[in-house]
Each structure stands twice: as structure tokens, then as C-alpha cells.
Amino acid sequence: MIVLQITVQRYMRDTEEPVMLSEVSDLKPFGFFQRPTCQQLLNAFTKIVVKRISPGQRITVEVDGLNEYQVHTYVRSDGLAGTLVADKAYPARVAFAVIGDLLEKFSGDPATRGWEAETKEQAFGGWPPIAAALTECQDPASFDKIIRIQKDLDSTQQILHQTIDNILERGEKLDDLVTRSDELSATSKQFYKQARKTNSCCTIS
């Protein structure tokens, strides 16, 4: 089981796109030259998902181009959002426990005060708890501990499983969103288009 990335974002509809407040990723499973492109694609796809789900919703999305990976996303009612990108073997319950605990820490940390009005990307980059969370959640032995931390995430809380096409608004196409994304370089956009044809984007080398 592999966790590629965890992000904390905010989306309060006062900005055109979600703001990436803090992000950490581990792209060692990929070839060295693939990593910059994979990083850009992860950033773009997580923002696409955060922007299109309702506050209070927990959703696991399969994204064309990410091959065997899923984007687990939770957007709180106050606009603070978290995403965790992992392979399909990673338990959704654990992913959402990690996200929920991380968002609680973020909103309560004096070091992140003022996040509600922040518009700068990576304004809280290097926030220590997010790096610690990535390390911890890679270890299956920590799963029970993670679940216990987030006690309110019980079986009565619905986790939706969708494809990216299901959450896009009427008339939207993922290829068009990728083309317009400011997160992606021209090289990454071209790479995505070619890779999607063979369903081989960001595969483990």
C-alpha cells in the first residue's frame, strides 16, 4: 500500500480555484524524470476534486490518468479541505481518519492562524504535522492507532466512491480542465494526453 500525497487546501468560493495551503508527497515509487509531471498532476487533480464536492462530504474519486490511484477528499463546512492520494489497496477508512485528524490539528494550530483568508499557495508549506502524517500512514501497523484517533468516523458516515466524470459539472470534460490548468506545464499537459490514451500516466517504474 502506497500513499503518494497529502494536502491541506481551502476553498470558500472567494477564489476561483482552491488554495493549496500545505502539501507533502512521496514520489519515490516513480522514475526520476516522471516525478515533476506526477507532482503537477496530483496537485491539479486534487484541486479539481476539492472544487466540485459539497462541504461536509467525504468522497473517494478514481481519476483517469492516475491509473491505480484514488483521491480521498474531505471538505469541511468551514472550507478547510484535505486530500490523500493512495493506491486502491489503501483502506478508505484509514485515509479519512488521517485527513480528519490532520484538519483538526491544522485549524487549531497557532502557526496556521489566518488560514481562512490566505490566498498564497503553500503559505504553510513545511508544516511539520503533515510530513509526520505521511510517514505514519505509510505503515500498516499504525492503522489501528489512526482509526482510534478519528473516533467520530464510524460506519454511519457515508463515504462516496465516484469516478472523476461523476463529479464534473454538466458539459465539463477532464481533458479541457487539464488543458486550462495553471498547475500544469505544457510538457505535463502533453504527457497527460498521451498517457491517458494508454492509461499509463504515473505508473510505478
Structural class: alpha+beta
Strand content: 15-25%
Task: List the strand order in the largest sheet.
Answer: 2-1-5-4-3-6
Largest sheet: 6 strands, mixed
Radius of gyration from the alpha-carbon trace, in angstroms: 16 Å
- What is the terminal-to-terminal distance? 16 Å
* Portion in helices: 25-40%
Ranges where pLDDT stays below 50 over 5 or more residues in a row are: none
Q: What pattern of helices and strands is seen along the backbone? A: EEHEEEHHHEHHH
Average pLDDT works out at: 80
- Outline type: globular
Number-wise, the strands total 6
Number of discrete helical segments: 7
What does it look like?
The protein has 205 residues and is an alpha+beta fold. It is built from seven helices and six strands; from the N terminus they run ββαβββαααβααα. The chain has helices spanning 35-51, 92-108, 128-137, 143-149, 164-167, 174-180, 186-198; strands at residues 3-10, 19-25, 58-62, 69-75, 80-87, 160-163. The model has no long low-confidence stretch (mean pLDDT 80).
Give the structure's gist in a few sentences:
The chain has 205 residues and is α+β, with helices and mostly antiparallel strands. It is 37% helix and 19% strand. A 6-stranded mixed β-sheet has the order 2-1-5-4-3-6, sandwiched between helices.
Outline the fold blueprint.
Elements: E1 3-10, E2 19-25, H1 35-51, E3 58-62, E4 69-75, E5 80-87, H2 92-108, H3 128-137, H4 143-149, E6 160-163, H5 164-167, H6 174-180, H7 186-198
Parallel strand pairs: 3-6
Antiparallel strand pairs: 1-2, 1-5, 3-4, 4-5
Helix pairs in contact: 1-7, 2-3, 2-4
